[in-house]
């Protein structure tokens, strides 16, 4: 069974600085997808960034980037130039299988989350 | 496009009562998911539908939880009877396989069982 572990329950960072959130996962599969989601107090999960396991290049989205270490089963999120609006819960998630038999997209397995506070 | 709609936003009930949550997914999204998010934890899948058929309900406590997706669009999740440990946020999400593995989440229903 796949598991996702986020070892940092809470983190804080000063505005404009850089912070890295950690995530490790356990799987015996080779083809899978990894995600970071942001959950503000509104509770809606918002996709931050996505990484395909078969791609060696680390994904980037503006101020957000990942460090994907497939052999180590590590998937950390770096937030550069932190902004007050980045304050939220951040969840690492694992998708396998990408597609179920019958053609439906697979199910996300989430870690317990990291509460990030950006301080002015 | 309109987002995933969920109602109610909040619900407080006494234990042993029943409750129902409603979800309207993104138009055209064939796959619908219900997740349970207990305070301090990540969401956990309860049930996944493909159109109006069940793909995965292995983690749904079937003695008290039920869900349906009539006509492959809206979905309802019911709890009867509720227990204190059912207090959680119930998130609905939908997806359409377009190759980008996108999911759209609703804002959830926060259930408190007292």
Describe the structure.
The complex is a heterodimer of chains A (120) and B (114). Chain A is mainly beta. Helix content of chain A is 0%, strand content 49%. Chain A contains no helices and twelve strands. Chain A has strands spanning 3-5, 10-14, 19-21, 24-26, 33-39, 46-52, 60-61, 64-69, 74-79, 88-95, 108-110, 114-119. In chain A, strands 2, 5, 6, 10, 11 and 12 form a six-stranded mixed β-sheet that branches. Chain A has a four-stranded antiparallel β-sheet with strand order 3-9-8-7, with no helix packed on it. A two-stranded antiparallel ribbon of chain A has the order 1-4. In chain A, β8 (64-69) and β9 (74-79) form a beta hairpin. Chain A is globular and about 50 Å long. By secondary structure, chain B is mainly β. Chain B is built from no helices and eleven strands. Chain B has strands spanning 5-7, 10-13, 19-24, 31-37, 44-50, 53-56, 65-68, 75-79, 88-95, 104-105, 109-113. In chain B, the strands form two sheets. In chain B, strands 2, 4, 5, 6, 9, 10 and 11 form a seven-stranded mixed β-sheet that branches. In chain B, a hairpin with an 8-residue loop joins β9 (88-95) and β10 (104-105). The A-B interface holds A 4, 33, 42-47, 50, 91, 93, 95, 98-100, 102-105, 107-113 and B 3, 30-31, 33, 40-45, 48, 50, 55-56, 89, 91, 93, 95-97, 100-103, 105-108, 110.
Say how many strands of chain B there are.
11
* Tally of helical runs of chain A: 0
Largest sheet geometry of chain B? 7 strands, mixed
Runs of chain B with pLDDT <50, length 5+? none
Low-pLDDT stretches of chain A: none
Output the structural class of chain A: mainly beta
Helicity range of chain A: under 10%
Distance between the termini of chain B: 37 Å
Structural class of chain B: mainly beta
- Looking at the chains present, what oligomeric state does this protein adopt? heterodimer
Shape of chain A: globular
Beta-strand level of the residues of chain B, as a percent range? over 45%
**β-sheet strand percentage of chain A:** over 45%
Q: If you compute it from the alpha carbons, what radius of gyration of chain A comes out, rounded to the nearest whole angstrom?
A: 14 Å
What is the string of helix and strand elements of chain B? EEEEEEEEEEE
């Amino acid at each position: 069974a796949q598991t996702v572990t986020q070892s940092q329950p809470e983190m804080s960072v000063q505005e404009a600085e850089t912070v890295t959130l950690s995530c490790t996962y356990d799987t015996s599969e080779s083809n899978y997808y990894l995600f970071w989601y942001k959950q503000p107090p509104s509770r809606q999960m918002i996709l931050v960034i996505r990484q395909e396991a078969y791609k060696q290049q680390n994904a980037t989205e503006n101020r957000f980037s990942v460090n994907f270490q497939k052999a180590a089963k590590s998937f950390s999120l770096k937030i550069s130039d932190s902004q007050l609006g980045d304050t939220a819960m951040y969840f690492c998630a694992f998708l396998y299988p990408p597609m179920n038999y019958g053609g439906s997209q697979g199910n996300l397995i989430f870690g317990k989350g990291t509460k990030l506070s950006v301080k002015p | 496009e309109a987002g995933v709609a969920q109602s109610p936003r909040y619900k407080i009930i006494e234990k042993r009562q029943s409750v129902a949550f409603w979800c309207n997914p993104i138009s055209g999204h064939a796959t619908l998911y219900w997740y349970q998010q207990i305070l301090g934890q990540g969401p956990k899948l309860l049930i996944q539908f493909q159109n109006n058929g069940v793909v995965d309900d292995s983690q749904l406590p079937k003695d008290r939880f039920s869900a349906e997706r009539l006509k492959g669009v809206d979905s309802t999740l019911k709890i009867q009877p509720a227990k204190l440990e059912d207090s959680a946020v119930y998130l609905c999400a939908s997806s359409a396989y377009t190759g980008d593995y996108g999911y759209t989440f609703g804002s959830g229903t926060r259930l408190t069982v007292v």
